[in-house]
Amino acid sequence: MKPFRLLLALALVSAAQAFAQDAPRVEVFKSASCSCCGGWVEHLRENGFEVSTHDIEDVPANREKLGMPEKFGSCHTATVNGYVLEGHVPAADIKRLLKEKPQALGLAVPGMPASSPGMGGSPVPYDSLLVNGNGSSRVFAKH
């Protein structure tokens, strides 16, 4: 039984290393004064993403430049592999997005739901939305 456990452990370590080597790079654009953005960045790093942050003066203008409609706005906007991420999108949803590769602008968690990654508040239900290039959206994941 011990050799099986050893093989299983080696396989898990190998898989984690493979993901880390190919870890998607997330570019985060945020306000320097926003503390919850740092919590979201840590959540992504803990889930295997490489993250670079950029403190900017005008988050809404950057959101618009990246094509994310204001109605999905939150405290930060990010990019990963050609997709736009708005707000506190869970790492699992980003991984699913990158695996499924739908034709879309990206994902958004509008506002700042209290229990979304990085917020640390009381549990409240919220949705991650798949946002299309024309501004329409549908629920991608329920939390």
Radius of gyration: 16 Å
Question: Which structural class is indicated by helix and strand composition?
Answer: alpha/beta
Question: How far is the first residue's CA from the last residue's CA?
Answer: 38 Å
Mean pLDDT, rounded to whole units? 88
Number of helices: 4
The proportion of residues forming helix, as a percent range, comes to 25-40%
Shape, per Cα inertia axes: globular
Largest sheet: 7 strands, mixed
What is the string of SSEs from the N terminus onward? HEHEHEEHEEE
Strands of the largest sheet, in order across it? 2-1-3-4-5-6-7
Q: Into which percentage range does the β-strand content fall?
A: 25-35%
Weakly predicted, low-confidence segments:
13-20
Q: What's the count of strands?
A: 7
Structure description:
- The chain is of the alpha/beta class.
- It contains four helices and seven strands, in the order αβαβαββαβββ.
- The chain has helices spanning 2-21, 35-46, 59-65, 91-100, and strands spanning 25-30, 50-55, 76-80, 83-87, 106-109, 127-131, 137-142.
- Strands 2-1-3-4-5-6-7 form a seven-stranded mixed β-sheet, with helices on both faces.
- The longest helix is centred in the first third of the chain and has 20 residues, at 2-21.
- The protein is globular, with a radius of gyration of 16 Å.
- The termini are far apart.
- Residues 13-20 have low confidence and may be disordered.
